[in-house]
Amino acid sequence: MADFVPVQKAVVPAAGLGTRFLPATKATPKEMLPVVDKPAIQYVVEEAVDAGLTDVLMITGRSKRSIEDHFDRAYELEEALRAKGDEERLAAVRESSDLAIMHYVRQGEPRGLGHAVHCARQHVGDEPFAVLLGDDMIDSRDRLLSRMIEVRQQRGGSVVALMEVPPDQVSAYGCAAIEGTDEDDVVRITDLVEKPAAEEAPSNWIIIGRYVCDPAVFDVLEKTPPGRGGEIQLTDALRTLAEMPREQGGTVYGVKFRGRRYDTGNKLEYLRTVVQFASERPDLAPEFIPWLREFVKRHDAADGVEGS
Fold it and tell me: Is the pLDDT of residue 115 over 70?
């Protein structure tokens, strides 16, 4: 294994306005919307911790204070639960505050993911670091982030997570041009295009919300002009790194991910995620799944009547 500095810190950008979920997100951060009974952002922090990253920096914005409160102690609530002897709920409440060493910095204005990542520079310093986007949830049984960290440790450079999608979906994501390596699930990135038209996409492999970045990305982001939408794009910085020599922090690899990913970035995918998680919960599934089957049956029957 090559002698590269280990990845020890995670950065979680969470400063978005959540406009797709208005009016729910007028006063509640989108990241705090529950997936069954736990906010989506907690699953993301748990993923970082499972990969060995217990130093977590959250990039927040105005009106995001409830995220900090969630990962802090709630002494009055804990005391009330303790007085009731409700050890199960007490453990659930304390779980989030015991997960990791949490840090917070505010992104003063919404200038894109690249700008949000650059806000982490003082905390991260000259170390490689992981970036986890809150809209993407990776099933805890699929060790994607651990694999990406392993690739970084072996090869250096930066590492992105890639997932193959149908051609008609590439325009919603950053898309990668790739070439193979000596490992089936690892490719070298030769170009990145942010949200290309289907006919202009270099491949069907899109970047999903997991990155392991070399600290050289900070200098590149500082010089990266605003791109699509007037925002500073992390994709543009990674494209520059892909063209730089490794000894300068360059080279970008991709890990092909074929596991279970859940998208909570829009209403339809969020609802699908909640249903899938509820269907796998042993305390809910025995009653929820039969109800869901009956609901679908009634819905289909009603559609049949209306369509006759």
Answer: yes
- Amino acid present at 180: G
Which pLDDT score, from 0 to 100, does residue 72 have? 94
The confidence score (pLDDT) of residue 3 equals 66
Long-range contacts of 140-143 (CB under 8 A, 24+ apart): 140/43, 140/46, 140/47, 140/50, 141/259, 141/260, 142/257, 142/259, 142/260, 143/50, 143/51
- Distance, in Å, from the CA atom of 14 to the CA atom of 210, rounded to the nearest integer, reads 14
Average pLDDT over residues 225-237: 85
Output DSSP code: residue 60: E
Least Cα distance to 273 among 44, 28, 11 occurs for 44
Q: Are 166 and 204 in contact (CB under 8 A)?
A: yes
- Name the token pair of 68: 């900090």
Angle between helices 267-279 and 285-307 (to 10 degrees): 130
The pTM (predicted TM-score) of the whole model is 0.91
Measured CA to CA, the distance from residue 14 to residue 75 in angstroms comes to: 25
Q: Write phi, then psi, for 227 (nearest 5 degrees).
A: -115, -135
Judge contact between 200 and 177, C-beta under 8 A.
no
Mean pLDDT over each residue of the chain, to the nearest integer: 92
Determine the pLDDT at residue 305.
52
Give the whole-angstrom CA distance, residue 142 versus residue 17.
29
DSSP result, 242-266: HHS-GGGT--EEEEE--S-EEE-SS
Q: How far are the Cα atoms of 66, 172, 194, 308 from residue 197, in angstroms, in the given order? A: 38, 9, 9, 40
